[in-house]
Fold this protein.
Amino acid sequence: MIREVRARLPGHLIELYGMLECGFQSHTRIEDDPEEVCGLVGRPLRQMGIRVVGDDGRDCPPGIAGEILTYGPSVTIGYYNNSDANARSFSADGWFATGDIGILDTRGYLKIIDRKKELIIRGGANIYPREIEEVLYQHPKVLEAAAVGVPDPRLGERVCACIVSRPGESLSFEELIAFLKDKIATYKLPEFLRLLDALPRTPTGKVQKGPLRDIVLDRMRPE
């Protein structure tokens, strides 16, 4: 998309990362090579602090995924009359937990991996749906794609790929796996495929993983 924008429009494209509770926290720079920072959301603003932490609350070393915490003047002072949400969202020293999983590189550039609540845990292994989805979108027959976890009594969860095919196209499970198997680790491969007419989305266009998972589970129930 960045390449297409640059080919059609004059000027320069930068990427921002932020959310309602925090404003925007990082951005790529005008002087950055777009090809080099593709997939990254830049470095933190000078006024903002960004940390990536593990489940133990300790900072992750560069290249290791963890939850993104942020701190600074644009971060909300808290959720109104919601002490439970505030307790979940703020550390003891005031850092806000975004719920996003990210990686900081050695230069301080941030990459968004996925939403923490959308993580799929299969047999104790963490699987980030976004990684699978980015590969699914490379398939020429795929118009829209999303990956969700479905319950499994032995492994905890298994991966289901939800696909909206391009007009006039059809995609089989075997064809999908053949395309993916050399591009992602074997344990991340989808074990189910659901072809849909459309993915449920919010008014702003984000895929609603909760309702999508409900659709998948409803179709998996025996008649």
About this structure: Residues 209-220 form the longest helix (12 residues). Residues 119-220 form a domain with the GMP Synthetase; Chain A, domain 3 fold (CATH 3.30.300.30). The radius of gyration is 19 Å. The first strand starts at residue 16 and ends at 19.
